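so my prof wants the structure for this chain in the tokens format not the other one, which i didnt know existed until like an hour ago. anyway here's the sequence
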Amino acid sequence: MICGIDEAGRGPVLGPLVVCGISIKSDEALRKLGVRDSKQLTPKRREELAKEIRKIAKVEVVEISAEEIDQRRENVSLNELEAEMFAQVLQRLSPEEVFVDAADVDEDGFGRMVQAHTTCTARMTSRHKADETYPVVSAASIIAKVERDRRIREIEQDIGEPIGSGYASDENTMAFLESWVKRNGCCPPHTRKSWEPAQKIMMMKSVRKLESFEG
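here's what i got, hopefully its the right format
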């Protein structure tokens, strides 16, 4: 069995980090499906492919919330946290060979970091942009993205107003954050408060409050 592992939601200021692994005997069926890096596909096509991938491959997904990310980052780096999640998926799937999308500048170093957290002895290939090179990683990236998008929509329903994609580059997300902080004096649920964009918004709130007090 071969396995591919990838993540969705590493950098957003809102929402969880989702890691997916898929295991399959051969990537031939995935090639026939036309799997690609999830970022190169429309949301509709990702949804369609995710359903087909689940029919032919074993799938494992792990998720960590924004609150948990903030807590864990007090003691470990984001790369280490991600490696632990990759290892958890790898342990569940126990393939003979695994391909992972390297999150660290040191590709092989990230692979060793993953292996340090699992007893699985699969042959490891850890590469940058693996989701563009290996169909098993492309397939994992698709499901990870679909699952994260689903969680974002659930969070949006819980909050009761549009929150955008959760990325700081998304004007809708940043407008939502700024509006929420202005109205409530704190970051909304599911915010990565240790992230610079959230900290900047809270800092600006404090500056405006001080200016108002002094005025």
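also thought this was worth mentioning. The first helix runs from residue 28 to 33.
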